[in-house]
Structures
1.
Amino acid sequence: MKPINIKSTMTLYGDWVKARKRELENWRYYHDDDRVAKDEELTAERYDLILSDKGYLSLASKLAEVQERAKARLISADRILLTLTDVEETLDIPKKDMNGITVTIDDNAQSFPNAYKGIPESTRFTATYKNGWRVTEICRAPTCSRSRRVVVEHTDESRAALINRFTAWE
């Protein structure tokens, strides 16, 4: 599969998440004011920008192709964006140190009883960070256990940044 560059989509998604948080905060404090209506309008416009982005459209079309005949344990392009954002926030290391990191994610990871007939499959994706996320593979594969939901392959720089993050005291 040709890698799908979703750097601009992730930027738009981050802006949308920030606008959504601001909208919710304003709703808590100003729920009868015009500010909420303006924020909702802004949030909707930002979400429309995500949906029309080239990276998002490529991602959605590849997902539709891979999941064409599947009925269970599917994922959406929005879910991919959310999961990659969560990975970034969880690692919490500088972007320059993230270059080269590869993550394989099975968002529907779960355990099944041995009496289950057949091999349960879910949609998995693999993404690599190189100055922004690139989705390198989307496939249907046997469902992982919960402990293997997110598998991160680190580079030496990312390992050093993680060690520094947990050991540095200021």
2.
Amino acid sequence: MYKDLKTLELEAEQAFLNFGGEEDFDGYDEEFDDFDSYDEEYDEEYDEDYTGVMGKLGIADRTLLITVQNTNSTATAANIFGANKNLYLPNFGLPAGVIVDAPDSSYGQVLSEIQASPMLIKGIKMIVGNSAQFNRTLQFVRKEATGSEEKDPLQPSRYLSALQNQGTIVEMPGIKFPLDGKVELQSVYEPGHVTQFIFYVQSKIDLARATEGKSAIRTRVRRRRTK
């Protein structure tokens, strides 16, 4: 039997407090995946009728595109995100020759929104100009104001498949992590190339909904209406 909506809401809120890989959230995912089959039954007026439940995440809000361009002649280390630390630094704390952009808005706006509206990411696609980039480790770092750190390395090359026709594209659907002001993604970027990251947003915090007496969580998972 499906869990009630209040239980699901509490689990979603708890997910933002955890930082880990696919194994940490397997049960959470299976429970939500079961609801996908009820998409056709979703009522657009659901949120109006049921105050406090999670809202629907719009299609445009389900992906976050970030590009990293290294214009230097040598490989260069750079950190993206980490809004709490980098938002107010010159050039967002990026080294000379490295340009980070968010084509759908701006990188500065992304950092600002992440501080106020944390996201739960489920899945990453990388598109690179040089396949050697996949051999560069992605390091997820979560640093607290007290100085404590959690680190979680990811090796994109492990997701390369012989069935993949494009050697410059890697899909990592099982990678999950909360993206807030504390989280930073560290890597070294190949010289003269652009790396694109497409982050798939599972859910996000929308504080404006709380002012209306609704849950501050918006999710891409639709729910069956029950009465």
3.
Amino acid sequence: MRKISPMNETGTLFGWAFGDSSRGDDEAYLDELRRDALANATKDAASRGFDVEAGTETYLVINPDHTLADLHTATDQVIIRCTVKLVGPGAADVHAEGPMNG
């Protein structure tokens, strides 16, 4: 088993942005929300002492009108979830799973 150096540890974390669901088909608006979600993830990572590896962000657009999930909260909002890769000592202990960061 290969030992991972603390500087090479990686984990994942979610960032979120919420917007007006009536604009859920407006790509320019969704791009703004994606930037907000990435900024949210980056800020959360920094508050935990981690860096975000540039270029690792992926996005999921959750629109209550187009999802199988029963959304009881934010029913009139489009939700952007950004998943990023964390780097730094202890990052391997942080995993974005389900709706939350672990």
4.
Amino acid sequence: MGVTLALCAVCVAQWAREASFRARMNELERDLAGQGRLRAEAVDQAEVFTQEIERLTTLRADTEARLLEMTARVQELEQANRPRDEKLAALESEVTQLRDEAGAAREALARSTAAVAGQNSAVEEHNAIIEKASTQLKKVTAERDEAIEKLNARTRAYNELVNAQRKTGR
């Protein structure tokens, strides 16, 4: 009877140990499933961020290409229409100021794009910066176009004045 009781005690101890192991295994399985979900979410989020980075990179490249094109146009206009008096010189300084503002907008865009790669949580903030830079670029472009129109009007007026003076022989 003592051996039977000892055997029962061993069975109870084994049963308690097996129950503890099963509980721990169930807990580990739940943790593993949770980690699997978190990993899948992280992979999905990384893919979304990768797509967003690609979109921002494309947007940045397009903006820089437009900026370079507009800068080249401004430079061509400057070479073709050198200022002839103080009013034209004032318009040229406005064009230079607009170019500086465009450079600042490009730098802000570059800073925001570089920060996107390292800061996944700041994507919304960067989008706001990019939108602001785009708005500034549109504003700068509109102001530049207005300055160029003024420069062209001044040049036409100057040319008309020169032509009138030539006709009158002065």
